[in-house]
Amino acid sequence: MKKVWLYVACLAFCLWAGPVAAGELVWTPVNPSFGGNPLNGTFLLNQAEMQNHFPEEVDSLYGDSSTIDDFEESLTRRILTQLANQIVDSAFGGSDTDLGSGTYEFGSYIVEIDAVEGSSINVTIVDSITGESTSVEVPYYN
Description:
By secondary structure, this protein is α+β, with helices and mostly antiparallel strands.
């Protein structure tokens, strides 16, 4: 009798369950930057701003400088580039004029050049504001 009830219960379960259909599992990202729902963008941005523990810096690299400061930086870069070209030309024999020893001051930089003929060119650049200095020795290749 128990076997009959077991068979009836299994048969009833199979008839009750019917055909089972399965579909694909599809993963979709949450972040709209990676193809997720665009409505999640505001929520994710608010969550990120709440977790941000770093204050926004007041001093910006581009916003606080004036036209005169930009001109001074541009001029300083141009002079340093021209001086570097002269040092390389002198060291490799590319120019007819020899680079003489001396000290040049412009902006907050002091550039000391010590040219030892036939040996090397020693260049020391000192930033008078921060006190940082850089020394470079360029050998002659004549």
